[in-house]
Amino acid sequence: MELRLYDTLTRTKRTFLPLRQEDVRMYVCGPTVYDFAHIGNARPVIVFDMLFRLLRFFAKKGVWDDGKGQTRVTYVRNITDVDDKINNRAAKDYPGISLNEAIRRVTEKTAEQFHADVKALGCEPPTYEPRATDFVLPRSDGKADMVTLIKQLIERGHAYEAGGEVLFDVRSMPDYGALSGRNLDEMRPGARIAVDAHKKSPLDFVLWKQSSEDEPGWESPWGRGRPGWHIECSAMSAAYLGDVFDIHGGGLDLIFPHHENEIAQSRCAHGTGTMANFWMHNGFVEVEGRKMSKSDGNFVTIRDLLEKWPGDVLRLQMLMTHYRSPSDWTEARAFQANAELEDWAYLLQSRYTWSDAVFPEPTAIAEILADDLDTSNALTFLRELYGRAKRGTGDQILEFAASCRFMGFRNLAKPGYFSQINTGIGAGSGEAVSKNASRIQALRAAYANTAPPQVIKSIRSEIENSSVRVDVNDKGKIVLIFGNRQDIDTRVKELIELRNEARARKDFRESDRLRSELAGMGITLRDFKDPHTGEPKSEIV
């Protein structure tokens, strides 16, 4: 059993082996806490939470330490709490108080919301979560800090003072641009690269800049000021993981200039040939097929989505797509994910007693994930486990439950998962909604104290008719799918045929998409091959 990961720097998928047998070390860029995290911020949090789980599984199995299982995994995700965007937000939101106090309020409020968001997404906390402001000046514990790193860069000839700033000299590093695949001579300053006359090269970037009296600042050899963004991560990663570590992660948007500049600073300050052994980057997130933008009105925060959907729905939709591919958040896929999770939760709650459950190792699903964190195929396998568990024994249900837990869906078996009945309308026409609204309100009161599985059965039996299909999400909200029953049945047959065609041509991404669409209609499939022709077939279970 081996773990293979794609490395952005070498553009290859390689076998992962930790640099130190006793400790796997991973650093992921965290939030800048000036505003609530948006749906795009959710993706790296979920992706690297899955990698954290997978690394710990390998460590526990003793893959890297001759079967002893003593390798630990150290996961560091920082919080950037010093940044001009924070200063601007603080001045705007709290104009009547000092800027430093306003900054404290903004960062505390935003960090608190971020922690609540990622917990709701099923993500486990990192081993360490350093704040940038704690690593500006030399520390009593000897951990790396920003001022010391900047001094080292100046001493080694990689940085210089000019115009009240300390700047990194990019031409002092011959292979600058290797991560992003850019040639230094071909690079030009633009929207993400500031142009100033005091720079030796327009591409030189700020390590330290002056602060005015009302701006946050620290006394340094270069006067009172504050650090540049890039030096923060170089200091915090070195503080906890050392000069060279195993994995550095983040979103594609961070490759240039942030990660490129991190590499330059860290390598030149420490005199090393690399900063991290693997560089991993997740793809972008669109909303309803379009780039997310406040001006386009499709900017969505995690907090906004959690008011409508349980965190498991966000997590499942993110994991449906391979982490390096672009992901599209849509309401339709959210309904599909929600319906699928409801089915899983119903099975787990109605078929087993969990108080004394002993879960097996999720080895089979971990082996799928071991191929560059292939969550898409892992979910396909999880759906197969679900089909077996529906027809099978307690052991098969336990295997399904263990795999759900490993993927981060830990709450499906908890009795409180279907908590209370609220009115919530899913896909459908306004006319059909209005006809059923009063009935839903009555059902909410009637079944408020009923055990979860009975709630679902009772509601479905009460309201199901020729024009409505009823489901209940994990917050107890009724989800209605409207349409003529005959039309729905015809559409189901069409989707199954399209999916079988996709499987025959080995278009597994389209196959998974169609399966998810069917799941959103409450349809679960069992796949098999025709015993006579060998063609892929499916049947409803």
TrEMBL record:
Name recorded for this polypeptide = Cysteine--tRNA ligase
Q: Where is this motif: 'KMSKS' region?
A: 291-295
What keywords sit in the KW lines?
Aminoacyl-tRNA synthetase, ATP-binding, Cytoplasm, Ligase, Metal-binding, Nucleotide-binding, Protein biosynthesis, Zinc
Pinpoint the tRNA synthetases class I catalytic domain residues: 17-333
The cellular component terms of Gene Ontology attached to this UniProt record, alphabetical and capped at eight, are: cytosol
For binding ATP, which residues are annotated in this chain's numbering?
A: 294
Could you tell me what the cofactor note in this record states? Binds 1 zinc ion per subunit.
Superkingdom of origin organism: Bacteria
InterPro entries, sorted: Cys-tRNA-ligase (IPR015803), Cys-tRNA/MSH_ligase (IPR024909), CysS_C (IPR056411), Rossmann-like_a/b/a_fold (IPR014729), tRNA-synt_1_cat_dom (IPR032678), tRNAsynth_Ia_anticodon-bd (IPR009080)
What sequence ranges are listed for the domain Cysteinyl-tRNA ligase anticodon binding? 486-529
Q: Which GO terms describe its molecular function?
A: ATP binding; cysteine-tRNA ligase activity; zinc ion binding
Family indicated by similarity: Belongs to the class-I aminoacyl-tRNA synthetase family.
Q: Which reactions does this protein catalyse?
A: tRNA(Cys) + L-cysteine + ATP = L-cysteinyl-tRNA(Cys) + AMP + diphosphate
Quaternary structure (record): Monomer.
Q: Where is this motif: 'HIGH' region?
A: 31-41
Q: Which gene encodes it?
A: cysS
**Which residues does the annotation say bind Zn(2+)?**
29, 233, 258, 262
**Pfam families tied to this protein:** CysS_C, tRNA-synt_1e
Cofactor(s) recorded in Swiss-Prot or TrEMBL: Zn(2+)
Q: What is its EC number?
A: 6.1.1.16
Where does the record place it?
A: Cytoplasm
- Example of a GO biological process term: cysteinyl-tRNA aminoacylation
Main localization is cytoplasm
